[in-house]
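WARN retry 2 of 3 for item q-0093 after timeout on previous attempt; input resubmitted unchanged.
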Amino acid sequence: MEIPMNLLKMSHSKQVEDGRGFYVNDQNRYECLKCGYSYVHRTHLSRHMKYECALLLADGRATKDGQFYCTKCSKCYKYKQNLLRHVKFECGKEPSFFCQFCSYRAKQMCSVKKHIKLIHGFLGKYRCPKCPKLYKYYTSLYSHLKYVCGKEANLKCPIADCPFKTKLKGTLKMHVFLKHHVSI
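OK item q-0093 returned
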């Protein structure tokens, strides 16, 4: 980010603050407010403040403590890109990312991925094109598409007065064994 010339003032007698956090010392060098490094060229100071000391705000203003502040909620961030992400996706907005396995919602997709891995035990690579389900293996997705997705539950529990229905034979066997203690 290029710093406009009118923001920087030169002085030969003492260190002068230009009102934006930039200091010019008595040797005509541009000095970093945070760490004290000095540079002959203002563009070098600008690069240093942006990438090394993180002192520049998005509009070119420098902050004394090197943090980037949200103007709406006053949250502060070390890096400018984190502030921009916060403003775009988080600040004053409802969570827009959701877990396809439960009702968990988050403002960042990485939070949802972390939730799925920790709570549900995996992070699926294969997404069903007909529903929001994810699968770790392609063969699981293939079975889901062939036997489950968009199909009606047509297998009924053989035990009288049990309303259970399913789409898969293995699920029916497991149900009968666990709920009725009978093996088929």
